[in-house]
Structure formats: structure tokens, C-alpha cells
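Minutes, methods subgroup
Present: GH (chair), OT, SY

1. OT presented the first of two proteins processed in the latest run. Sequence and C-alpha cells recorded below as shown on screen.
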Amino acid sequence: MDPTQLPVQIQTVSIILPNVTIYYPMVTGLQNANAEESINQAIYQQVQALIAQQGFYQNPAGTQMTGYYEIKTNERGILSLTLGNYAYIQYHAHGLTILKAITADIHTGRIYRLQDLFKPGSDYVRRLSDLIRVQIRQRNIPLLNDFKGIRPDQDFYIADKSLVVYFQLYEMTPYYYGFPMFPISVYELQDILDENGPLGKMLPG
């Protein structure tokens, strides 16, 4: 097999502070050192953004925080992962988890936005919204409000030859439901995919 298609090496790095335990990934051994640095910097910046977003710096003594990650895709030169951050702030009814994702090209270090997965000018927002609307109905997903469609920069990751579009807690559904995840097969999007983008690379060939 072409070595550029093989999985990349991942090391787990930790941030340990009073009341805080965060684990996040670091890419190692890439042929392109600049790409490796770009990906690792993007991961670290997102980890720090989650810490700040959860309000840790406003109340470090009263905040308990746990961070974790999951590798969703590590093949064909594409790395897609999620970074989760759970925080409980003293006197709140319950904690809150925020889940963010990063999808990167291991050769160039490019971090992809949702729009970068599709051909320029394709109406990916409408296509994805329509597919998600069908799943909402089929899966009887409880909504807080009528579903009006995804944002152009909606959260996503890539896993198992699928695009997984997801929503934050409270963004679409009640808290008890968890994160609404909508896996969409690459074959349902094949006609609008950028063939050289991360989803296009998941197609056989």
C-alpha cells in the first residue's frame, strides 16, 4: 500500500490542573513537518478555545473539567477527530459538554471547513438540510424548534465513508437527547463532492 495512505501516528497529550484533566491528540512522524505543526497547532488552539468557552478562566476554583478525543478517520491522507470538553460549574444544575471536530489533510496541513468538501457553487446546505430533515422524521428526533436547515459552517466529522453532521447540546434537541448526529453516506453526495477533498478521497478508486 502507498505509505502516504497509511494511518498517521497519534500520541496522547494531557493538561492536568486542579479540577482539570484534559487529554488531546498530537500527530507525530509526518513527512511534512510544516503540515504536522499546522495540524497540531489547530488541535491545541481548539482545546484552549473549549477551555475558555466553558468559562474556566472566570471561575477556575469552581469549575471541574474533563477533556477527551476520538479519532474518527485516519486513512487515505485524511485525519478527522473530535474534541470533547465536559465542564461542571459549581451550583449549576448539571454540567455541559461541547464537542468540536477537526478534519485535516496530513500532507498539506489544511484544515477543512464544511464547504471545502463540495464542488464550488454546489448547494450543499440545501442538500444536507434535506437529508437531515428526512432522518429527523424517520428517527422521530424530538426538536426544540422547527428545523430550518444547517448553518454553512455546521459542525461535522468524517467516519466510515460518511459525513457526520452534528449539532451541539440545546442547538436542536432537548438536553437529555445528547448530541444529534446525522451520518450521510458519501454515495448520497457523490455528485456534489470535491473529488480531491477529504470526502472525495473516501470514495473507492
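2. SY then presented the second protein from the same run.
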Amino acid sequence: MPDRERGTHASAPDLDELMARVARGDHAAFGHLYDALAPLVHGLVLRVVRDRAQSEEVTQEVFLEVWQQARRFDADRGRARAWITVMAHRRAVDRVRAAQAAADRDLREGIKEFQESYDDVEDRVEVALESERVSRALDSLTDVQRQAIRLAYYGGYTYGEVADALGLPLGTVKTRIRDGMIRLRDVLGVSHG
């Protein structure tokens, strides 16, 4: 059964029927739905999150949400598989954004601790102003430019990993990063020669 290995051994109508049974609280149906879609969901989440342990956590969160929200599924508006994969992608992106927000907080805390430990008041003020200036410059970018630059430069992601995390084509990511860096250079008044 090659389809079973891809996590699609049940056809779409079977998955929709399983969702209807899950909505009625059928634990066995939920088990079958999980078995059918967990490999697909985990693979999708792993491509976005890029960390196996976090991907497993997110996959479990997705299926918990499926169990809790099954009554909201409407087969007239779409397929169960699509509903669940959209949910998985949303949760994976949320996890990446949360990790980036934590990294940004850590960076701000690190800057703050560095500033507090520095004896020279003039230098502390200069660092704070520069940090604020860079932050304002980042805020002048589009959301995609800002996310791509943060993932690439603060997160250490490759262009390909940034493209996967944001769900965008590689060429688009490269263009957004290049345009964002040019904009930052212009806003910060950095010479490029």
C-alpha cells in the first residue's frame, strides 16, 4: 500500500466521514483520522518549524485542536484533509513567529543587560539610540521583508529555510531580503560604496 506510507490511505470522503464521527465524539474515528493524517501533518509542520521536537509538539497541538474543534468542520465548505493541513500550517507559522518573538526579546534583554553593565553613560545612550534607530528602520519594512531579514540575520536561517518558513518561493525571499537591506541602508544612512 504505497498510499498508506504517504498518510493518505483513506480517501477524501472517508476522511470527511471520519471528521463527522469525530465531531460526535467518536474516539475510534479520531484514532483512524490521526493514523491517516499524522504523517502528512508532521511533514508539513517540520518543513515550516525545522525542528523535529517542536514539530512533534505542534503536530500534537494540531490534533488536539482537531478533536476540540471538530464540530466546526463543515464538509460543505471543504475537505477534512485541507481543513486540518491549513490548521497545521497556521500553527507551525505561529510557532516560528513565537520563537522569533522570543529571540527578539532575548536580543533586547541582551542589549539592555549590556547597556546596564556599561559604565559610560554617553555610550549607553548612544547604543540605546542606535538600537531604537535600527528598530524603527526595521519597522519601515514590509512584513515579509522584516520577517525574512529577522529569520536570515537573527535566526541564522538560509534563504531556502526562510522561504520554507514563510511559505514563499526562494526567488521572492531573496528579492524581499535584498530590497529590505537596501531600504535599511537608506533609512540608516549607511554608505554603500
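Chair's summary of item 2: The CA atoms of residues 46 and 55 lie 5 Å apart.
Next meeting: continue with the remaining queue.
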